[in-house]
Design goal:
The complex is a heterodimer of chains A (about 120) and B (about 110). In chain A, the strands form three sheets. In chain A, strands 2, 5, 6, 10, 11 and 12 form a six-stranded mixed beta sheet that branches. Chain A has a four-stranded antiparallel beta sheet with strand order 3-9-8-7, with no helix packed on it. Helix content of chain A is about 0%, strand content about 50%. Chain B has no helices and eleven strands. The chains are: A mainly beta (about 120), B mainly beta (about 110). At the A-B interface, strand 5, strand 6 and strand 11 of A face strand 10 of B.
């Protein structure tokens, strides 16, 4: 079985301070993990993905995430928040080995950036 | 933009109406998906098509009827919907169902009165 837990439904940071969005996963297979971002009234945009290569994954807009198998975590970080980072963030787990390669989404974390 | 477009962007319909949502992908992908996004709930996968054949139907009520006439187009036909069907409906595509990265359209915001 596969599932994702996003530990915070809402995170608020000041502009210029670090961002940490937490994600824990459960997977019976070798997982692929993704972070997507959704700005208001927009679709989901891929930020980054992990597919069993380097455990530290760099994405767009200065975001990165580290795959930690021992902790079953895939937290998203950014050194310095920008106002344009305010959005909803989704952690996703999938596996090429699972039937139909279904995506399993977390419930999302809403990021607010305070000027 | 991701190369996946959806129309209309907003739709209001009564419970007795019939309407259709359209999705088009310009990426040359072979797999397409419909998702439902409701407030405070994870995205729900509704349908998966691969090479125009339906490969997944996650127990979606029959009032939602998908159609995939070719690998670039996906429709979701709606009839006799309920107010609880109000949500954002997202379309996505990927190279194949075994390809992990999915590319999403902007969604159709549906309100059922």
């Amino acid at each position: 079985a596969q599932s994702v837990t996003q530990l915070d439904s809402h995170v608020s940071v000041s502009e210029g301070t670090p961002v940490l969005l937490r994600c824990n996963y459960s997977s019976s297979y070798s997982p692929s993990l993704f972070w997507y971002v959704q700005h208001p009234n927009k679709g989901l945009q891929l930020l980054l993905k992990y597919t069993s290569a380097a455990t530290l994954v760099k994405g767009i807009n200065g975001f990165e995430a580290e795959f930690k198998k021992s902790e079953t975590s895939f937290h998203l970080t950014k050194p310095s928040a920008h106002m344009s980072d305010a959005a909803e963030y989704f952690c996703v787990v999938s596996s090429r080995l699972s039937p139909s390669n279904q995506f399993y989404f977390g419930t999302g974390t809403s990021l607010t950036v305070i000027p | 933009e991701t190369g996946v477009t959806q129309t209309p962007r907003h739709l209001v319909m009564g419970m007795t109406n019939k309407k259709s949502l359209k999705c088009e992908q310009h990426l040359g992908h072979n797999a397409m998906y419909w998702y439902k996004q409701s407030a405070k709930k994870p995205l729900e996968l509704m349908f998966v098509y691969s090479l125009e054949e339906r490969v997944e139907n996650n127990s979606v009520p029959s009032r939602f009827s998908p159609e995939c006439p070719n690998s670039s187009h996906l429709f979701l036909h709606l009839h006799t919907l309920q107010p609880e069907d109000s949500a954002l409906y997202l379309c996505a595509s990927s190279q194949d169902t075994g390809e992990e990265t999915q590319y999403f359209g902007p969604g159709t915001r549906l309100l059922v009165l």
